[in-house]
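In this notebook, the sequence line spells out the residues, with the fold written below as integer tokens. This is how one looks.
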Amino acid sequence: MTGNDQAMTDSDLQTLDDKAMESLRAQITEHLQVKDINGEHVGTVDHLDGDQIKLTKSGSPDGQHHYVSLSDVRSADEVAVYLSKTREEVMA
């Protein structure tokens, strides 16, 4: 390691985490599908509610809104939000 090399500080890592979360939040929009780790349909995005995704009632088997934590999101694109959990784990 030379004098110019520096290890990333906790602050640097937090900044990266914050930027990654901002990017993810920007990708999650109304009406995107939500798919579990197996690619099964979990629901449809109604909107973001703090650090959670609120799912539409119309896509729910019990006719109620359900919520998915942003910490359970693996990735998102223009088609869907992809989770790191199974549908059963999310709905539990």
About this structure: The longest helix spans residues 10-27. The first strand starts at residue 33 and ends at 35.
